[in-house]
Amino acid sequence: MAPVPGYSDIGKAVNDVLKGSAKSGAFQLDNKVTYSGSTSTGLNATLSAVAVGDKVLPTLKAAYAKAGYSADCTFDGSSQKVALSTAAANVMLPGLRLSGNVTLPDTNSAKFQAEYAFPFLTTKATVQLTSSPVLELVASTGLKDIVVGVEVAFDTAKNMVSKHNVAVGYHAPDFQMAISILDKLQTVKVGYTHNVNPTTRVAAEINRKLASGDTSVTLGYAKLLASGASAKFKIDNTGLLSALYETKLTSGEKVASSFQLFATDLSKPLKYGFAVDLS
Length: 279
Fold this sequence. Notes:
Layout (H helix, E strand, L loop, with lengths): L11 H7 L1 E2 L3 E2 L4 E8 L4 E10 L2 E12 L2 E8 L4 E9 L6 E9 L1 E12 L3 E8 L5 E10 L2 E10 L4 E12 L3 E8 L4 E11 L2 E10 L5 E10 L5 E7 L3 E9 L5 E9 L8 E7 L2
Parallel strand pairs: 3-21
Antiparallel strand pairs: 1-2, 3-4, 4-5, 5-6, 6-7, 7-8, 8-9, 9-10, 10-11, 11-12, 12-13, 13-14, 14-15, 15-16, 16-17, 17-18, 18-19, 19-20, 20-21
């Protein structure tokens, strides 16, 4: 039996269209260059550089994985911090993944995570490795195409529940729908995505803050072109329009171009970005 989708998978198809991902293409409004390579020993390295204003901010990641064990180290040039993580999956028990991570120099950021997939339940527990940790529990269950998930955090220092979210998703073969109640049940988010055909997807998302009554609406469109390139468009209720075009050159490089403008006020400056992946 296939495991139940995780809590983060609820509404993921909507986010894939409206926000993007590394696999399907993401809106990139800065100029970015990425290069990845690997060795015969299993070590993978990725170097990227992002131009922000008159600065170039590098990020270097080295990752190694073998026989269920993995470790990676990432240097972020923008924050001048180093993130370390390690994990063991399906080693002690099938379906069990144990991991730990820390972002230096802040040793209080250290966390330990345990994830386990039961036949009808997927869980993840996270604990900060401090004297007064925040404990987080994420769980999801489902039957057939319906998935229900909860996310709860307890702050032991304040002796209070600091987070509680609920999400329900319906994952059909040709469409997905998700309803989430977030921010301690103060925000309602409804998302929908539909596969019009094998190359075309549309998506919509509505966010409403119950206390203030503020509502935002975002519509998206994603198209896989005959050439193998992909295009994405999204617009929200403020008139903010974003577009992405991504393709892979015959020499193997992946290039992407994005822009963003206010369709209702063309006097506002246009934002744009260009990304090249030399992997």
